[in-house]
Amino acid sequence: MCQPDGGLKAVFARLIAATGPITVAHYMAESNARYYGERDPLGRAGDFITAPEISQMFGELIGLWLADLWLRAGRPTPVHYVELGPGRATLARDALAAARRFGLEPKVHFVEASAALAALQRAAFPGAIWHHDLASVPDEGCLLLVANEFLDALPVRQLVRTPGGWRERMIGWDGTGLVALAGERPMDLAVPPQFADAPEGAILETSPAAASIAAEAARRLRGQGGAALIIDYGYDAPQLGSTLQAVRAHARVDALAFPGEADLTAHVDFAALAQIAQAQGAQFLGTVGQGAWLRAMGIAARAQALARAAPEQAEALRAAMDRLTGEQHMGALFKVMGLTAPHWPEGAGF
Ligand code: SAH
After folding, report:
1. Which residue range(s) make up the domain with 55?
2. Which pTM value belongs to this model?
3. Mutate which of 114, 145, 232, 265 to test ligand 1's pocket (most atoms within 8 Å of Cβ)?
């Protein structure tokens, strides 16, 4: 057998040699745990740039959305701001600065798996509380939940249609590299009827991890009050096809080539999340394009106000707004899903 490079790829090669191919979900979970654990991947010097890193306007409008709802809900206390995968805490900083002007000063909770990023978050929010998942977030007081580009990093499971029926999609080792292949166990019963007869080679992707977080978030909203904004790239009607992709140094790379050294993501199935959240008793406000939502929240007026205060920034502000809202940039592919507790007022922008 040809020797693989060091690092996680070598670990996978040994594991597969010893126990056989691993699932796509296993591959993605291990790769991203290694990837996020060791670095700050954000920014020009990193691998990718997210909306809050493009402009302060993004976080500010999220903060206004939360403050508006909280005020109209009657300023309930205690109130907790809970952000999933807060990265450099840029969004939290901008959102909570905007919210503070309306008297909203929640306790801050971060759900973060990366020690490297938690250290950056601690520098910005020394008083915050960190969690591994939602389970340890207080179960008293209303929750204002935010997740931007978090769910796309969670592992997806893939099923593939073979001549013999549906199988789990697995990752094996062909002697020189990692390769995708079909598992042996029949998985036909795991496929919804509308896809049962999909053509050979079709791939059905689901995210059990995202589903369980949506269920827990919705259950908490129903029991404790509050609202959630989930923002990510994804689709809002069931579809077939693999959306697994890897990005390194701002370029797409082969998803199997650099495990642990490239950001692995998959598109978020917003239709599935909405269904789950509603089944758990949350009020579903809608899923809209990021561009439409930011425009409805007044991004143009905010850009103008910032440009008046700093005219030399006018061109940069216009470019940032275009990047966040333009249909050919982040405006259409990225979506915003809103949830509230039942009987809470409806949030703006949906
Ligand atoms: N929301 C930030 C960062 C997005 S990157 C922004 O918009 O800039 C993804 C974030 O999710 C990182 O903070 C990463 O460390 C975190 N993350 C990824 N997988 C996670 C997991 N399984 N559990 C907790 N945090 C995770």
Report:
1. 42-153+207-238+263-340
2. 0.97
3. 114
